[in-house]
């Protein structure tokens, strides 16, 4: 869910630890029993998203209405100041609801966060389930994070296509260096979730680097390029058609109007995939692996009359073509509106559609040439911190007036 | 001498006459209002002519005593002394105790700001330059001055903006212990360090005459919610940096309005805005943390125990301690092993010193006490509201220091100095 904030994760690595208290049940045995008298900072954040909508998928299917609460998420975490060096250690865990929710037969939850994180002024190290590091270079302003995902996200060639969250999240080991909390260089190894062939142990199957620039926090209105970056990923697919594929991603936000009240932003992203010998699709997984180029763009208008968001209108578009597979193009569009009713509570509406040519639709959308959905509903987000004693890391104070870790 | 000056002098002579009476009552040192004889000042001259006035509030009461000695709106005249100070405000990192640092608003780089000490009746000129992105002022707490110099933003003056300089000019009156602080977003800015002592030395120090002293200490008492300071300073920095950038652009200036800042021309304009849909920020706070401050460090001169400065004394010595309630909470300063004399309140000498071992210091008040070197040793001097004797909830810490006898060993007291950070 991506509304006014970039994402829940940027609100903080503020995370939970299940502290052992005397006579209380311990979550799991730990190597060194924790001192129960030092309670960590506790953070709970969540997003609720519920819509009622109407789907029309292809000419052969009749339209149908549905209720969708996917991409609602709950995240809990704990963070603790460390003994030396001004570091902070944290742990986070979170679940989000997935599109299986209407079937009622499988788990409606997906564990999208379960990670440990160390950070100080210059460095950050993260291990566990978290964001696919190239998937959030640009957060497009669609209602849900997986809207138009095949056009806006680098795709996971190990996914069987049933759960789109497998493109957005992975098992990650990452190290990030930064300069003045503006320039971030990341090197990482990932295990992209392997649902296509669960019996195959692919281990660490993806390695990459990213660079990202993030401007002064809260002052995005005044920078022409408040955020941009690029990344490279080498994925060891090791299938019969290729020994590995490469993904290059480049994207950023362009500020079109220097204004506090009337913000107008252009989001741009290009994902280029090469290295596969696939020349036809036999499964949906092949559509995630084959050489392709995906371009996405969005225009976002946010009206903030008195220093407080009032409403947002955005248009997101994407186009993708496969260079070695013929008749396999797709394009999509999402028109999204958000009206803020109160702090954290919005009424939302969206129309989205995605069209595929026949080869691609056969493999990716059960032969449906297009999928369209119109929906309206509510969104709520919150972020509560308890026992607060650790300040945010990327702040103007830390950037402009020397860094304090605590 | 004007009539007002005469009134002021009369008041002081009353104080002295009471002290003299106390000095004469040898052996009755426990009687409230009488200093112990061993430390009494030389007897005041009987020629003062008021020894016959019976002590007591009714006789000493001077209805005109609160009138200023000098007309507040008077301008300096040729030949009058002007003390000029440059105070520059910036953002610095302040360490409360090892391991606890905050971003702070600092006058001339210190937390609290530098002490200003001037003789009564002289002029004070303060060139206050704001090197931060926020608005600030300096309020001269307890000073009787021209309305325009009082330092209340959007009241007596506009807030001093980024890189602006405001000249405060006032006459140093009344004498005594006072302080200064920012009056913009006071709750945040004082916690962030914007306060300092202002000592106006009287032409005639009655306390000195009654309790001769050579050493004195000024203790500014305050408290801080370190989380709130860090978060709200960040929010303010973002907002004011935004405003500053908007000021640079004619186009963006058109977008700026009072509702964005929460500023209105008058009460009617505020009510009209609410009717038109404006939601005041306190309805659903949107600036930083919205909880009531949860003070976690309690400070003497910006430091918490064990990093507070000790007070040194010798046997037989008087030391003067100026206690200033600069923060938002009352504090109850208690001295172990001693009684002390409460001699001045809010700058003015009391009609009669009061013997105490615990003195309440309420926000905005100042109290001067005399500690007499009567019991050699190393003695705790701390806020007896036990919450304030903690650091982040752990005892000992906070608003605690020591009165240390330099000659303790000579009197057989051999208490080692132990720094205790956890009970």
What is the C-level CATH assignment of the largest domain in chain B? Mainly Beta
**How many structural domains of chain B?**
4
CATH fold topology of the largest domain in chain B: Immunoglobulin-like
Overall average pLDDT of chain A: 87
Strand order of the largest sheet of chain A: 1-3-4-5-6-7-8-9-10-11-12-13-14-15-16-17
| Shape label of chain B | globular
**Total beta-strand segments of chain B:** 19
Largest sheet of chain B: 6 strands, mixed
For the sheet with most strands of chain A, the description reads:
16 strands, antiparallel, barrel
State the helical fraction of chain A: under 10%
Q: How many helical elements of chain A?
A: 5
Oligomer: heterodimer
Straight-line N-to-C gap of chain A: 30 Å
How do the SSEs of chain B run, as a string of H and E?
Answer: HHEEEEEEEHEHEHHHHEEEEEEEEEE
Strand arrangement, largest sheet of chain B? Answer: 10-9-12-17-14-15
Q: Give the number of domains of chain A.
A: 1
Summarize the structure.
The complex is a heterodimer of chains A (406) and B (423). Chain A has a single domain (9-400), classed as Porin.
């Amino acid at each position: 869910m991506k509304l006014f904030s970039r994402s829940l994760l940027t609100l903080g690595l503020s995370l939970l630890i299940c502290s052992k208290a005397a006579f209380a049940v311990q979550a799991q045995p730990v190597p060194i029993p924790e001192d129960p008298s030092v309670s960590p900072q506790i953070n709970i954040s969540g997003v609720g998203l519920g819509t009622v909508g109407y789907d029309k998928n292809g000419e052969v299917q009749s339209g149908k209405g549905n209720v969708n609460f996917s991409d609602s998420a709950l995240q809990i975490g704990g963070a603790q100041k460390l003994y030396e060096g001004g570091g902070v250690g944290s742990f986070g865990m979170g679940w989000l609801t997935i599109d299986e929710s209407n079937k009622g037969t499988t788990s409606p939850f997906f564990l999208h966060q379960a990670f440990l994180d160390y950070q100080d002024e210059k460095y950050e190290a993260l291990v566990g389930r978290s964001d696919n590091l190239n998937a959030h270079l640009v957060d497009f302003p669609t209602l849900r994070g997986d809207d138009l995902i095949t056009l806006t996200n680098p795709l996971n060639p190990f996914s069987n296509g049933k759960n789109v969250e497998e493109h957005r999240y992975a098992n990650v080991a990452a190290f990030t260096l930064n300069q003045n909390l503006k320039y971030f260089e990341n090197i990482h190894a990932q295990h992209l979730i392997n649902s296509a062939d669960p019996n195959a142990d692919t281990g660490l199957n993806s390695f990459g680097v990213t660079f990202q620039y993030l401007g002064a926090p809260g002052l995005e209105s005044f920078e022409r390029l408040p955020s941009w970056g690029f990344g490279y990923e080498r994925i060891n697919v090791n299938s019969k058609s290729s020994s590995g594929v490469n993904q290059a991603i480049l994207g950023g936000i362009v500020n079109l109007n220097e204004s506090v009240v009337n913000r107008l932003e252009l989001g741009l992203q290009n994902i280029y995939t090469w290295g596969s010998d696939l020349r036809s699709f036999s499964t949906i997984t092949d559509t995630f692996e084959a050489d392709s180029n995906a371009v996405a763009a969005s225009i976002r208008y946010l009206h903030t009359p008195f220093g407080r968001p009032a409403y947002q209108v955005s248009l997101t578009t994407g186009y993708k073509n496969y260079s070695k597979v013929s008749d396999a193009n797709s394009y999509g569009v999402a028109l999204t509106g958000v009206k803020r009713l109160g702090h954290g509570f919005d009424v939302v509406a969206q129309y989205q559609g995605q069209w595929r040519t026949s080869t691609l639709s056969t493999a990716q959308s059960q032969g449906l040439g297009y999928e369209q959905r119109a929906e309206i509903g509510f969104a709520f987000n919150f972020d509560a911190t308890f026992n607060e004693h650790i300040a945010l890391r990327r702040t103007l104070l830390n950037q402009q007036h020397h860094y304090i870790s605590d | 001498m004007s009539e007002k000056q005469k009134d002021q002098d009369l008041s002081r002579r009353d104080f002295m006459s009471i002290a003299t009476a106390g000095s004469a009552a040898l052996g009755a040192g426990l009687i409230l209002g009488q200093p112990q004889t061993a430390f009494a000042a030389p007897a005041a001259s009987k020629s003062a002519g008021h020894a016959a006035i019976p002590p007591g509030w009714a006789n000493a009461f001077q209805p005109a005593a609160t009138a200023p000695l000098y007309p507040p709106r008077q301008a300096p005249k040729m030949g009058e002394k002007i003390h000029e100070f440059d105070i520059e405000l910036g953002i610095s990192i302040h360490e409360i105790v090892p391991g606890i640092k905050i971003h702070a608003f600092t006058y001339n780089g210190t937390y609290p700001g530098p002490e200003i000490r001037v003789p009564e009746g002289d002029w004070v000129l303060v060139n206050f330059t704001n090197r931060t992105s926020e608005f600030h002022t300096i309020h001269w707490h307890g000073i009787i001055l021209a309305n325009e110099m009082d330092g209340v933003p959007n009241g007596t003056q506009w807030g001093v903006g980024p890189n602006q300089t405001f000249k405060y000019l006032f006459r140093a009156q009344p004498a005594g212990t006072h302080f200064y602080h920012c009056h913009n977003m006071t709750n945040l800015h004082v916690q962030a360090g914007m306060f300092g002592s202002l000592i106006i030395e009287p032409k005639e120090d009655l306390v000195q005459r009654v309790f001769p002293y050579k050493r004195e200490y000024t203790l500014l008492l305050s408290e801080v919610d370190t989380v709130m300071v860090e978060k709200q300073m960040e929010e303010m920095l973002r907002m004011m940096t935004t405003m500053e950038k908007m000021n640079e652009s004619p186009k963006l200036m058109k977008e700026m309005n009072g509702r964005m800042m929460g500023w209105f021309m008058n009460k009617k304009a505020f009510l009209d805005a609410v009717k038109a849909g404006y939601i005041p920020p306190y309805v659903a706070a949107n600036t930083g943390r919205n909880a009531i401050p949860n003070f976690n460090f309690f400070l003497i001169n910006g430091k918490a125990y064990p990093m507070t400065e000790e007070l040194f004394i010798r046997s037989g010595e008087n030391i003067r301690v100026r206690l200033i309630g600069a923060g938002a909470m009352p504090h109850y300063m208690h001295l172990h092993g001693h009684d002390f004399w409460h001699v001045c309140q809010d700058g003015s000498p009391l009609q009669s010193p009061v013997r105490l071992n615990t003195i309440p210091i309420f926000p905005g008040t100042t109290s001067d006490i005399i500690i007499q070197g009567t019991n050699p040793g190393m003695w705790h001097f701390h806020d007896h509201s036990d919450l304030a004797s903690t650091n982040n909830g752990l005892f000992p810490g906070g608003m605690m220091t020591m009165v240390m006898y330099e000659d303790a060993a000579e009197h057989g007291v051999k208490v080692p100095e132990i720094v205790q950070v956890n009970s």
